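Quick one: co-fold with zinc ion.
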Amino acid sequence: MPALADADRYRPAHCPQCQAQQPLRGHGFYRRTLVDTGFDGVIRVRRYLCRDCQRTVSLLPQFALPYLCFSVSVIALFLVARLREGRTLRTAVVAAAQPHMPYQRGRFWIRRFQQQVKPTSSFQEGRVSPNQPRASTLRPAASSTR
Ligand SMILES: [Zn+2]
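Sure, here it is.
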């Protein structure tokens, strides 16, 4: 990936942690696993170092989330299948192209998602899919796997 090899291309102009107003220094890469709908492997993530606070800043690609090995699209496919379409946990992991993934991981994503969604959200109020029973959109984490 030539764009990734060029440290200047996405170099932050300031430190997001201490707000030092000087460009960060290239600090190599680290490797992390990533699971996407058509990919399961290791990616390189560029890292920068702040000379003021000596902390590193990683340049995660848009499709990756901090501390989660599954991509944004896999998690989104799962959440839409489970919360919007009212699918079971087992069929939602298939919809997310992860048929061998333990469904407990999906429950974890649902809990995280619901903790971050505002109470007025259409997901929690069950307005997104009026044809689905309200309880299935309200309490998927508490339901069985069916
Ligand atoms: Zn800093």
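If it helps, Residues 2-59 form one domain.
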